[in-house]
Amino acid sequence: MCELLGMSANVPTDIVFSFTGLMQRGGRTGPHRDGWGIGFYEGRGLRLFQDPRASSESEVAQLVQRYPIKSEVVIGHIRQANVGKVCLVNTHPFSRELWGRNWCFAHNGQLAGLEGSTTFYRPVGETDSEAAFCDLLNRVRRAFPEPVSVEMLLPVLVASCASYRKLGVFNCLLSDGDWLFSFCSTKLAHITRRAPFGPAQLKDADLKVDFQSETTPNDVVTVIATEPLTDNEQWSLYQPGEWRLWRRGECITHGKA
Amino acid sequence: MCELLGMSANVPTDIVFSFTGLMQRGGRTGPHRDGWGIGFYEGRGLRLFQDPRASSESEVAQLVQRYPIKSEVVIGHIRQANVGKVCLVNTHPFSRELWGRNWCFAHNGQLAGLEGSTTFYRPVGETDSEAAFCDLLNRVRRAFPEPVSVEMLLPVLVASCASYRKLGVFNCLLSDGDWLFSFCSTKLAHITRRAPFGPAQLKDADLKVDFQSETTPNDVVTVIATEPLTDNEQWSLYQPGEWRLWRRGECITHGKA
């Protein structure tokens, strides 16, 4: 199993606090020693940091923790390898360009016997996760050669995720830098922080932050994670089969496959 | 104008020394203040660091200088913006997946009136450089829907570069992680270091390195740059229209468009 981290916000927000919590699970408080990665959108641009080493020991992870990159959408992942050896090419998140936008994807779970299409996008590495991402983008591209709204797109995303879920465990995060789509097959949690902001205490590290002093009253910031990252706030758990579409911190639509 | 940096080596080699020289030109000894980026291949995996800020002031650039990432192929770039505003999405190098491999591209120059095809790959940002990269990949894909050897591919690469060159200045570096293709429209230099290795002195910073102590007798390392990076070694200059294909540090074929 792996751990996912997602963020959707209505103002560029740094994810240092949540990322610090997640990183502890990469070899210190969790068993996810086989690499980590995080993608930050800056407008349509995607800044990707990845390391096949354990996040709790990674020099690049330390940079990311020190360096408050502000972003409206973030997708992070720490990995415990099931399929594919531990190397850069098998490290999430994965990205591809579609319709002139950078799409970014991370997956938690395992799929058995996926026969992904390779018409357009092909995996570079050996993971079932990247194969599923390529297959999903191939389905989107086949259905819509030209750009459509995310509302039009949604049925293809949901149907694809539902089909992968039949092959095993498929919790995922997907974004094009504007919206953040999340699908829960077994385990995913979310929290939306907005005014009045309060303090938060990480579960996995001795770190507390008072969001009040770091935010303005109009900020809306949603964080999604495999398991709640703080122990003094109320996280909501996704139901199995539940999907949610986030944009600028708000859940704009949701449903169940 | 921008500055290019490329490396092809037969063993994983760090590029800290050359990168340090290049970074000085990003706002200190050179006028290239509008961002920088560098892509390191690790096998088929591509690790990309980019920053729209001047490289001489960038925190990420400092990390890359401290952190000796070993790679067999590297493509770096510092930018002085001509076309497209200064932001992440307009920062070289650009990358796309083709045939299940990560392709990486950086360009120095300016193209006027490029009408790039967008059949398959589309630019995310606004630069002529990314448009040319997408057009080039679209030509490759149209000519060869399935993978072919670089020898088969070469005529398409050379013909594409020759056509872009008609629109302005087109010095470029392109790689799929195995080979490194370089095309000179106006300015490009290369040096191949092999045993016996000697000392090298950067032109742009007070830094000297003795490659003897960092290498083994079988290492072959080629560095390509817009202008020579050291002042005590003999660099070779490309002729206008000259292209060279590098693999594992050696020039395996070259010609003139």
TrEMBL record, chains A, B:
Keywords: Glutamine amidotransferase, Glycosyltransferase, Transferase. Signal peptide: none annotated. Residues 2-257 form the Glutamine amidotransferase type-2 domain. One of its GO terms (molecular function) is glycosyltransferase activity. CDD domains: YafJ (cd01908). It is an enzyme of class 2 (transferase). Pfam families: GATase_4. It comes from the Bacteria. Gene3D superfamilies: Glutamine Phosphoribosylpyrophosphate, subunit 1, domain 1. SUPFAM superfamilies: N-terminal nucleophile aminohydrolases (Ntn hydrolases) (SSF56235). Its EC number is 2.4.2.-. PANTHER family: GLUTAMINE AMIDOTRANSFERASE, GLUTAMINE AMIDOTRANSFERASE YAFJ-RELATED. This is Putative glutamine amidotransferase yafJ.
